[in-house]
TrEMBL record:
Species for this entry: Pedobacter hiemivivus
Phosphatidic acid phosphatase type 2/haloperoxidase domain: residues covered: 87-196
SUPFAM superfamilies: Acid phosphatase/Vanadium-dependent haloperoxidase
GO molecular function: hydrolase activity
UniProt cross-references to InterPro entries, sorted A to Z: PAP2/HPO, PAP2/HPO_sf
Protein name: Phosphatase PAP2 family protein
One Pfam assignment: PAP2
Amino acid sequence: MKSLYFRNLLLFVFVFPVILPLQLQAQSKLQQFDDQVLINLSETRTPEKTGVFLFISDHNDWVNVGVPVGLLAAGVINDNKSMRQNALYVASSSAVNALFTLLIKKVVKRPRPFLANVKIKAVYQPGQYSFPSGHTSTAFTTATALSQAYPKWYVIAPSFLWASSVGFSRLYLGVHYPTDVAAGAVLGAGSAFSLRSLRGE
């Protein structure tokens, strides 16, 4: 019992004072990276590129709703049970992802980049919190679920090209950090993977 007490005391006195500053330094470096990426991107903006990335970002929800609705409609028209099941799979993945994204945002409460650093200029200023990127998580949920349901290169390639474009648009517009986008991609893909059993045969 005494040896356990002394071991914990040694950890507290000698190890934690070394580890804690290293953790804080790593977090600081990551934040510097996040900030610098957005500052650099803001310096490369042009009206044409801004228009393209605003279009992508603004139409993300239409794509995420349109995919399961399109699958359901095609499944009903063609009397295709597998397609109707895949519509349910994509929609369910999106619902689970939306729930977790909202929950994490409420727990983490990370401020938007333009609120945390005056050097970061956003194209527009959305509300809510920054971590994780909701646009990115929903785009990657849809891309992953669609690719799981139809594992063909001509489905996978455009799906993930779109999802990646959505993620990059959030960086370019200055409304999310790179770590927000990365977390959103992982969360979105994970939501779809977790419900793979719902795929149509």
